[in-house]
Amino acid sequence: MQLTSLRELSHYNRWQNRKLFALLTDVDDMQRQANRGLFFESIHGTLNHLLLADLIWMSRFTQTPLTFQVTSLAQILHEDFNDLQQARSELDNNIIQYIQQLDETSLQGDLTYTPSTSTNKEARSLPLRRCLVHFFNHQTHHRGQISAVVNQLGLDIGITDFAFMPKEEFQL
Predict the structure, then answer these.
(1) In angstroms, rounded to a whole number, what is the distance separating the alpha carbons of residues 89 and 83?
(2) DSSP string, 40-97
(3) Residues 116-127: tens digit of each pLDDT
(4) In this structure, what CATH number is given to the domain that contains residue 80?
(5) Distances from the Cα of 20 to the Cαs of 12, 55, 58, 142, in angstroms?
(6) Which domain holds residue 116?
(7) Arithmetic mean of pLDDT, 16-24
(8) CA distance linking residue 160 with residue 170, whole number of Å
(9) Across the strands, what pairs with 89?
């Protein structure tokens, strides 16, 4: 994957998260926290999982230690929806900044890390480019789950297709 495509994906990620959180603002906490049969049970649990996983990956990418202990991939970082939304917004901007500073040479290297929640704590080494593709794909996967639940609640998130991201959302 080319650097330009990764940059586009970072902006797509922010665009979709903004849309999703804006839509969910009108959903009450009980509905957001109800068990919907998702991998992380609720909309709120899944949004927390995405934030947690993204923070873990960003700490690996930037080689910066996390400021908290990871206890589980279902760990709730923010009980309050507004706090979760603020943390998501800040992280999305940090993701864009991180991707923006990468160059093609850095994408040729490997990322070596130790899983934080796996029972197998052996170091892994994967191409950075592959890790970044996984990073963005993982986000899309779980947002898709939430999108289906939102649809069942009678709400319409609108267009989520990458190809239809408005130009104003992506400015290099």
Answers:
(1) 10
(2) TBSHHHHHHHHHHHHHHHHHHHHT---SS----TT--S-SSHHHHHHHHHHHHHHHHH
(3) 776 677 899 999
(4) 1.20.120.450
(5) 12, 19, 21, 12
(6) 3-164
(7) 97
(8) 15
(9) none
